[in-house]
Amino acid sequence: xxxxxxxxxxxxxxxxxxxxxxxxxxxxxxxxxxxxxxxxxxxxxxxxxxxxxxxxxxxxxxxxxxxxxxxxxxxxxxxxxxxxxxxxxxxxxxxxxxxxxxxxxxxxxxxxxxxxxxxxxxxxxxxxxxx
Length: 131
What we know:
mainly alpha; Four Helix Bundle (Hemerythrin (Met), subunit A)
């Protein structure tokens, strides 16, 4: 199946947008983790939830573009699972007012590793489209 120039441009735009959203998701997720570990008391929970909400907006847009434009790929699917796992771990810490953030830390590190892999995959995808 050959792809015409307009379809290639649209795919390039959508994959680039996915990568932009990925960076936004990660930035806000990172901040949600940082404030939960650096601040004391209920303020840390509120700040963390606010950053989580911001990351979730980008995450939902990521999923919309991912599915709407047929960009599904097995290399990207783990990112969605790892995001949901991190969100669950963070919500449990906040709900229980738990000071042990080791599960959140592990979930964040897993998401970070997956993000790096997906970012590299998207970069390669974009490079291959430009050739």
